[in-house]
Hints:
By secondary structure, this protein is mainly alpha-helical. The chain is 70% helix and 0% strand. The protein has helices spanning 11-18, 22-27, 35-51, 55-62, 69-81, 85-98, 103-115, 119-126, 133-145, 149-163, 167-180, 184-197, 204-216, 220-233, 238-250. Helix 14 runs antiparallel to helix 15. The chain starts with 10 loop residues before the first helix and ends in a 10-residue tail after the last helix. 43% of the residues are buried.
Amino acid sequence: xxxxxxxxxxxxxxxxxxxxxxxxxxxxxxxxxxxxxxxxxxxxxxxxxxxxxxxxxxxxxxxxxxxxxxxxxxxxxxxxxxxxxxxxxxxxxxxxxxxxxxxxxxxxxxxxxxxxxxxxxxxxxxxxxxxxxxxxxxxxxxxxxxxxxxxxxxxxxxxxxxxxxxxxxxxxxxxxxxxxxxxxxxxxxxxxxxxxxxxxxxxxxxxxxxxxxxxxxxxxxxxxxxxxxxxxxxxxxxxxxxxxxxxxxxxxxxxxxxxx
Length: 260
């Protein structure tokens, strides 16, 4: 059984991670998980630490665990996050040669390569996946950054056939909708609104996505309400602040409070 499926034991921690609920991921009790899922859960917790600015602590924790490809990939991500790009890319290149079938290597290696401007290498690695929803989402994201909305749409449509109503596919579909525009803005809004209202998926990211869709639809007061909720959850969220500035600019309001 897929541990990330609706019946899988990693569903909750996986959902929390991809909704940006990083502290919840770190605090998640993984002691009762089956042996086969302990490493994937630990990887999510380490990635959550990196997302919260604790990359140095992660590097210290995984030091000496070079025999575990998943943790070497986490180490590479931590190196990249701390600005040691050359070391990160060196580690990814080594992993690409020896561990390209490892899903953590695919996802984290693809993330690093794309961030470093190596889109084609990222796609080559990510496309080796065997049913990884996160790899699919990263492929979609990479195609969108390449302005290949057609390929991103094709990837989402293909994944829909086997991933059905997965959170990551819904998020990827919303990304594509925001890029295509027109009536797709409304579709993206529905996706984000549903996630923002769900008890397990309500988080800063879904509220920001809802607000962005509202802005594109010209519904500025509703966008403001969603961003205010996001700022209440995390007053320091960079995306929430940036979109609040955009919103206030569109509404003709003073944005000085965000520059202090």
